[in-house]
Amino acid sequence: MRIETVLDFWFDYVHHPAPLFERKLWWEKNPKFDDAIRQQFSTLRDDAIVGKLNSWLQTPKGTLAYIILIDQFSRNLFRNTPQMYEHDALALQAASHAIKQGFDQQLSLIERVFLYLPFEHAENLQSQQQSLKLFEQLAEEAPLDVKSLANKHLKYAKDHYDVIKRFNRFPHRNVILERTSTEEEKQFLETHKGW
Q: How many domains is the chain built from?
């Protein structure tokens, strides 16, 4: 299976050659979409985790596909289990490599969003600061026709940053990861259900 297969599936390039949009499927819980990922990409995701796809990290699109396999597909394949976060460090490492190489500058706005998400998903302040910086830059550079989309993702980055700054972790993951919530986290979770 090729890099293009992953990207075509995720971004639906067949119908949207230059994605300036968001697919609802990316953010909602959709068992059919999850099953499609499981059937088509489960083995490929596992290959990425054990290093069989490290050659993909040599190009912008390859790195993006690698990150989608590990960061996004894991969340679809293992919803509400610790496994959905298990390999976030690999995705973060790939995203850091991509930024150092300037790969993000060769991608479209929506592709950059997914390249940056491993920073936003990380439970450490340094990664959250990097996320904020990247999404601020994205919002500044966004053309008018996608400015609102870029600003929306900047808001999400700020929200994630604020939670990590306050708690040093995402409290909504506590149950899944079998962590004990503090009283402050319990109060927070009464009004904040996660993303």
A: 1
